Amino acid sequence: MANPLVSILIPFKNVAAYFEECLNSIREQTYENWEVLAVNDHSDDYSLAIAEGFSNLDSRIKILSNDESGIITALRKAYKNSSGEFITRMDADDYMTGHRISTMVKSLMEKGKGSIAIGQVRYFSKEGINDGYHRYEQWLNQLTVTGTNYQEIYKECVIPSPCWMVHRTDLDMCGAFNSNRYPEDYDLAFRFYEKRLTCISCTEILHYWRDYDTRTSRTSEHYAQNYFLDIKLHYFLKLEYEPSKTLVVWGAGKKGKTIAKSLVERKIRFIWVCDNPKKIGKDIYGVCLVHYSNLNTIEIPQCIITVANEEEQQSIKSFFNKKGQLPAQDYFFFC
Q1: Which of 144, 207, 269, 304 has the fewest beta carbons under 10 Å from its own?
Q2: What class does CATH assign to 245-333?
């Protein structure tokens, strides 16, 4: 398997303004043994014509139509029709560096199965990148440099989608695109984590994320904050939650309330703490908020933290460190 076939899965919808740059970046790869499975998700601009034009130029680019609707079913269609030993994704409005595929293939061949090749990413936009996206890019790349991405998986998506590549058999082991849960890239990241695929560290930028007002991640309801919280809580309860420990929710802001309400609906008992004197003593969803110092009376807590302020997060870390409790084991940051 000197030059394994790489299948590049590309769902696309109304990306005519950017699609040529995306497909050109693939055709310019230094690694040549690839195929593109581009699935048209009911575009009503000239995206399909662009894809067909590239397919006529390059037989490695195959065009399919989504029989249903949405990115998940488009990915299923692409994957079903793929033949590669290695699988990766591509967003139709982004572009990749010329050595992205070769770098990832090399990483996977060196590390073998049970690994996921990832790369650093960079946002770009005509309007400039806002501070939130810039911080996310820096945070994600710092994790990718050391391959320690899973350490903070409950904060945000720690796999730089679509800048990843895996063995086909590993993707199948993780359920591929069978899940209907959105955001689909975050859900897949959790399944990589669940199956303990090792993240291969990378020090190079391999992918460029385009940001613009109508990008799907900005406009689709499937990428709203409540979907992210649903995924975090789902996998926390599945993979981390230990009923023998006392579950604690720290924080009574919007995210804290969302988590608390979900736990109440699931009939899961928990203690709710915060440091806001206006909320301490209040009964919300049938749970009375108490001061976080009550944690000192709990022998074995397991804490979900929904406090977003970075300075407060550092104070919370210090609080747990003094108690000898560990991140991603005794306490989990959900933001």
Answers
A1: 269
A2: alpha beta
